[in-house]
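Reopening this one. Same input as before:
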Amino acid sequence: MHRYLQRPVPRSARFLDHGVISLAAAGGTPHIYRLDLRVGLFDHVSVGVTANWLPGQRAPQVWPVGAIAIWRWRGVSGLGVEVGGHYRPVLFPSVDPEVHFVPQTQLGLASVVLSSGLFSAGLDFGAAHTRIPVVDPNDGLSFRRRAVFGGGAFARVGNRRAGLTADALAVLGPEPLLVFELAVELRFGAFEDRPRGGWREL
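Same output, byte for byte:
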């Protein structure tokens, strides 16, 4: 197991190495901002939480997040390929619950990632489980749940310890939703098997 966890892997925009803790701060739409904490396990599983707290909300929105990498490969040339999937929610600004239902969208997406050196980019595609309003425009409290297509693209620039990530996702429901964000991420070697290296190391 130790030998497996020391093999070369890509500097991924989607998946964390074993024993690495990721802290990220992101700004975008519709969530305004969010904070993210994750930990990588066995080079294939990433689990954590994401949260924000906006004016008008009684308490912070806190949701689990996670990713599973089915295949991670890095060649001698430095080119990396990864295939897997991840789950994430969309954190919406507050609404008046007496006038409008509370929006909620959760994404379960497959991811294909290509990496080389400081750059990592790829595509997401899958399903979005979302709340949509009923037909009656005068009834803002009623909604129904629906699964629709969701997908987009992402990119990361950075080394194994620090990076800048951009995400653009679209939820193609009756009322299409665009999710866009820029995030600054720091990754710390908590209990990884690979040599920890420094902050400037690729």
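So the earlier flakiness isn't reproducible anymore. For the record, The domain at 4-189 is CATH 2.40.128 (Lipocalin).
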